[in-house]
């Protein structure tokens, strides 16, 4: 039996998981998340599309994440450093140990790859 090694990253034909920041991390607004996981591989590798509505919350990363912004505007600020305004076309990596805030200014959609 043939098993394809190609996985397209798309929201078509799949239902998202819905969520929100943990209440103790919420700073402002009432942000809601939608996540379409298209890959969950052994060893802690995840890929898909994530979307969030406006709001602001604290973030802490134990994992490595590559992100590519598809639409919207967000500001990711390091706890003791710079704030980065992100918009469609921007790509970045959040490394383990990153602490700061994520603020969605305009509903934001991103592609992601996470390595735990």
TrEMBL record:
Natural source organism: Neoaquamicrobium microcysteis
Protein origin, superkingdom: Bacteria
SUPFAM superfamilies from the UniProt entry: RmlC-like cupins (SSF51182)
Protein name according to UniProt: Cupin domain-containing protein
Classification via Pfam families: Cupin_3 (PF05899)
InterPro entries xref list: RmlC-like_jellyroll, RmlC_Cupin_sf, UGlyAH_Cupin_dom
PANTHER family per UniProt: (S)-UREIDOGLYCINE AMINOHYDROLASE CUPIN DOMAIN-CONTAINING PROTEIN (PTHR40943:SF2), CYTOPLASMIC PROTEIN-RELATED (PTHR40943)
Ranges of residues in domain (S)-ureidoglycine aminohydrolase cupin: 40-112
